[in-house]
Amino acid sequence: MEGVPENRRSPAEALESLRIDKDAPTPAYVQIAEALGRLLKSGELPAGYPLPPERALCDRFGVSRMTYRAAVGMLERQGLILSFRGRGTFVAHDRLRKAQDELRSFTEEILARGGVPESRVLSFRLVPAAEETREFFSLEEGEQAYDIRRLRLKDNTPLAIEAVQIPQRLCPGLDRFDLARNSLYKTLGQFYGMRLKTCVEEISAEVPSREYRRLLELPGGVAILVIRRKSYTKTGDPCELGRTSYRGDMYSAVVHSARRERE
Amino acid sequence: MEGVPENRRSPAEALESLRIDKDAPTPAYVQIAEALGRLLKSGELPAGYPLPPERALCDRFGVSRMTYRAAVGMLERQGLILSFRGRGTFVAHDRLRKAQDELRSFTEEILARGGVPESRVLSFRLVPAAEETREFFSLEEGEQAYDIRRLRLKDNTPLAIEAVQIPQRLCPGLDRFDLARNSLYKTLGQFYGMRLKTCVEEISAEVPSREYRRLLELPGGVAILVIRRKSYTKTGDPCELGRTSYRGDMYSAVVHSARRERE
DNA sequence: CTAGGCAATTGGTATAGACATTTGACGGCG
DNA sequence: CGCCGTCAAATGTCTATACCAATTGCCTAG
Q1: CA-CA distance, B93 to A196, in Å (whole number)?
Q2: CA A141 to chain centre
Q3: In this complex, do A82 and B234 lie within 8 Å of one another by their Cβ atoms?
């Protein structure tokens, strides 16, 4: 009726509301990291806000201090909080909180930037693997690979051309799937058990060929940003080899790095 | 006199030789991670080589299992080893072992690529801070900032042009230093206590201006790779703002990413 | 010879407590 | 007023132990 609106919690109240389920199969420290992480990412706690002392939160969650600290470690590595010995633990600045550089698919990337992604398959063929492909996947000469070329659009404008090679051996029958509508990565993970975990990208600048200028509907005087990507599963096995060429005037890549001093 | 050369240790012997100093001020788990990390990075252990079980190594180092596992956690996050419940812990593939994407200075970067770096100061002025600079550092209008432009060379060939802005307030008297010979980052850390920990880079492709073509001695038909960098201290305070333009035909940026599933 | 199950091995999670180190506040003293 | 010592509070490190969960391989019953 009056006074404090119900939907506005104080930071202290928000922290009070955190719960974990000790019977769940998920480890307690993961649950704590996820719950606290959600709260931190929601922006409900102002930057610099001090978290309650570890011992207090351990009691809240009913876990031991080592367990709680495992969660804190995850959050600190993600840049969500900062700990100082003797002082306390504090909510990080917004800019650090946003420094989450996860591996994203094209679709996720465009959505994150607030656009409408679209994909058109230019070609989808089974071809003898090119040398670079053979080397990356350790293939014999003559082995077949899927070669997929897609035009990627954002808000109905051509933004990039993507070329991907994957050996047929790793995903027989891949051509049954409609890659204009379905995510390639999701398909690989769901139907072939190839969940990609890490990737190495080499980013360079080039002047586009006439062919690319036509496909991307490029005006003159625009360069392209070329990203060559090698992706791997968590065991380090090669997973996918790709090359994406973006319109230089419409796209830039954002990367985060950190110096590793002690950890 | 004959037989096994002394300088060739077996993997098992190499592991045997690891030691830590429990009286040192450095935490035991850091020492273990550094010692084991050095061994792993040296390439002395073949990929896939199984590490001794945790319990055995705990005894070797004379620490408890939790302590040892703190070290293992660091190494696994660095991609040096892989652990599998019930099976063991193994040395990672070379390509994962190299996936260390640390924040590097231009000099470190060129040295890592096996070139000879050089630096020429094009200009070093104190100017009213530009709007982008003011916004990044939260400066008042009219505040002064150092503006440093340097030509960066690799093996005597112009490779990039770097422009950096730093507020005078953060590092008064910076112009006393010779930035052709000394690292900017080292100077900032050593004399002003500004140790940069994280940075966000935006990488784009452009067609060079006439001025840049001249300075970089660029032939026609070559694009430039532009990297705009915002760097921060570990507390998230802004530290340096820079823009580097590389010759597109001589340089590409390499970045590593990982999907964060659970951790 | 094979299929099933059991036990040993290994990493994963968790506990309860101890001591170390750093920081900031408070208060006394010059 | 300022300096310094003390002390409490907070995070950092570490131990010794327990049990859980996944994997492997052996052993036995059929």
Answers
A1: 15
A2: 34
A3: yes
Residues of A numbered 181-220 whose beta carbons fall under 8 angstroms of chain B's beta carbons: which are they?
196-207
Between A28-42 and A65-77, two packed helices, what is the crossing angle to 10 degrees?
A: 40
- Single out the residue of A70, A56, A57, A86 nearest to residue A28, CA to CA: A70
Beta carbons within 8 Å of B224's beta carbon, 6+ residues apart: A205, A223, B205, B206, B207, B208, B212, B216, B218, B245, B246, B247, B248
Q: Where are the alpha helices (DSSP H) in chain A?
A: 11-16, 28-42, 54-61, 65-77, 94-97, 106-112, 131-137, 184-192, 210-215
Question: Measured between alpha carbons, how far is residue A241 from residues A101, A148, A164 in Å?
Answer: 20, 11, 6
Kindly give the confidence (pLDDT) of every residue in chain A, 263 residues in length, as a single tens digit, with 9 standing for 90 and above. Answer: 454 555 677 777 878 888 899 888 999 999 999 999 999 999 899 999 999 999 999 999 999 999 999 999 999 999 999 999 999 999 999 877 776 666 778 888 888 889 999 999 999 999 999 999 999 999 999 899 999 999 999 999 999 999 999 999 988 889 899 988 888 988 888 888 888 888 899 999 999 999 999 999 999 889 999 999 999 988 888 999 999 999 999 999 998 888 876 65
Interface of A with B in 216-245 (CB under 8 A): 221-226, 232, 234-237
Q: What pTM was estimated for this model as a whole? A: 0.88
Q: How many CB pairs below 8 A link A and B?
A: 160
Q: Residue A255: name the closest of A53, A57, A148, A99 by CA.
A: A99
